[in-house]
Amino acid sequence: MHRLFSALSAAAAFALLLASVAQADADRPIEAILEPVQLTERVHYFYGSIEARTPLNLGMNNNVGFVVTDAGVVLIDSGPSYQVAAKIAEAVAAVTEQPITHVVNLGSQDHRWLGNGWFQDQGAEIVALQRTAETQERFGETHLNRLIRVLGEEAMAGTDPVTAPAPIDADRHAFEVGGVPFELLFVANAHFPGDSMLHLPTDEVVFTGDVVYTERMLGIHPQSDPVGKLESFRKLEELDPAIVVPGHGAATDLATARRDTGDYLETLIREVRAGLEDWESLDETVERIAELPPFQHLLHYDDWHRVNVNRTYLFLEASQ
User: Fold this and answer.
1) Residue pair 189/225 in contact by the 8 Å Cβ criterion
2) DSSP label at 164?
3) CA-based, 20 to 30 A from 264: which of 94, 118, 186, 310?
4) Distant-in-sequence, close-in-space partners of 292: CB < 8 Å, separation ≥ 6
5) Which CATH number applies to 2-319?
6) Boundaries of every domain in the chain
């Protein structure tokens, strides 16, 4: 943890420590979620609920970050709704008088971008890779309707699936705001197709989106690419940041990200491949690796691990 804490002020380190042990109170109201945690002099994040989307957290069970520069604030992801986006902006305004000028979308799940419309209405530039925007367009209405069912129409009032009007047709996009360099990177399809990461090289921070989960078990969805997710994680290791801000779970160091995500993906893919090579059935593979003690500390292990084995088996079988 040395590099992590050397990059933080004492107050920010203490706040981060508190966040890292918040699992006992995993679902928190939106007001508690929108208490910013300072990571470096200019980098902050909102530590999202690590439970499911609920009326209490208003669907914000993910992390959202922001970077204060001399030319404005760069927001990393925009929240799950028009109304939560407004609350995010209010929370940022309590930290700085700088306006939010850019909103970077790292992924296509609802909580990463359905707040885009509010920020676009305020004049912010929405920044996303073409791959990400295409997946947002594919799943936008489905994800919006799911949130309406979970949170209610009132909570989602005003929310529309607004994607970046000029997405970047590249896998790497370097840009600068107020003298601060940013690098938006796509490595491979991960949690969803088009997932990307945002690297702040001078701050030694990477916002990973859904490439990394800490504290809670990651999920493999029908649209997920577990092999691509691992490839993306390995790129994160090459960047070697002091601070990793995962898509879900407390911001941390690279070693903890490796423990909670990298090691799990390595184990999952290796063991499922071994089962396929030995002509195991899907059920046999699931039963053989149903209990993985190194990962049972993760919240929702019992809900997700068998599902992850099942979907990884089907993915790798189809890839043969």
Assistant:
1) yes
2) P
3) 186
4) 264, 267, 305
5) 3.60.15.10
6) 2-319
